[in-house]
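Dear U.,

For the methods section draft, I wanted the exact inputs and outputs in one place so we can describe them consistently. I've listed the two proteins in the order they'll appear in the manuscript figures. Please don't edit the C-alpha cell lines directly; just add comments below if something needs changing.

First protein:
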Amino acid sequence: MARRSSGRRIVLWLVIAASVLLIARSAWTETLAPLVRRGEWSAVVLQATGIFLALVGAGIMVYGGYAFVQSTMQLWLSSAFQRNIQKVRSKRGDVREARWANWRTLWRTWHPHIPWLFLGFALVAAGGVTMNWGAPETGLRALLGAASLGAFAALRATLPRGKKR
C-alpha cells in the first residue's frame, strides 16, 4: 500500500481543521451564545459537552468506516478470496466450504473495525442525549419522556400475547 504524500496529508488536515472550525462557529453563534446571554450556564455546559461528544463520535465513525471500507477493498484484491468467489459462481467443487471460507475471511477483515463504528455511534447518541437534556425548551422533561416510552415498549414486549382471532 502506497503512503500518502505529505502535501496530500497537509490538505487533509486543513480540510478537517476547517470543518471543525465551521462547526464550532455554528455551535457558538446558534446555540451557545444565546444561552450565555440569557445566563443559562448549566445549559451551556451540557450543550458544549454534547457538541463535543457528537463531534468526537462522528470522527470515530468516519475513521471506523474508512478503515472498514479500506480493508474490504484490500480483501477483494486477494487471490484466495477471488478463487472462492469463482468457485461459488461456477457451482463446481465444494461450494459450501468456499462460502464459509469467504464469510470467515470477511469476519476477520471486518471485526476489528466494527467496534469503532459502534463506539462512534454511541458517542453521537450520548452527545445528542446530553444536548437535549441541556436544552432549555425541553430539559430533563424530554429525557424522562423518552425513557418512559422505552420502558413502556420494553414492558409491552415482555407481556404474553393473546391468541389472534
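Second protein (the one for the lower panel):
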Amino acid sequence: MKFLPTTHQGVHLPPSPPAAPARFLGDTRGYLSIEQVAWLPLGLCAVLAMTDASLAYVQQARLWELARDTAHQVATGRMSATESMRHAKAALPSHGHWHVSIQCLGTDVLVRISSEDPRPGLTGLIAALDPDTLAAEFRMRLTSATPPISKAP
C-alpha cells in the first residue's frame, strides 16, 4: 500500500516528481555557447547602432560648423559670396553631391549646405530613418561695415 504524506491539518499532498538522475544536474557544458549565440548578435547590433549614430552626428556637426564659418566670412566682409562658396565646397568631403547656397536676405546672410545622397555613419541607417539628415542652414546678420554682397551663381 502506498503511503501519502499529510500536512498537520490532515490534507493529502500530491506525490513529488521522481528525482532527476544525478548525471544531468552537474552537466553545464554548452550553456556558454548558447548564451553567446543569443546575446552576441544583439550586443554587436547595439554597438554598431551607437557607432553609426555617433558618426552621423559628427558629420552633421561639421556641416553646421562649416555653414556658420561661411556665413561669418561673408557677413564680416572677409570673403565675397563666390569666394566663400568655393571655400565651403573645398572643405566638404569628396564623396557625395553637395549643394552650397549663399543668399543675402536684406541684412542677413543665409548659408545652406545639403547633400543629394546622404549616407552618414557606417551603414546609412540614420539616413534611412531621416532622409534630411545631412543638411545645415545658418543665418547671420551682416555687420554695418560689410560691403554689399555679390550674388553667388
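Candidate sentences for the figure legend, describing the second protein: The mean pLDDT is 76. Strands lie at 98-105, 108-115, 135-141.

Thanks,
Y.
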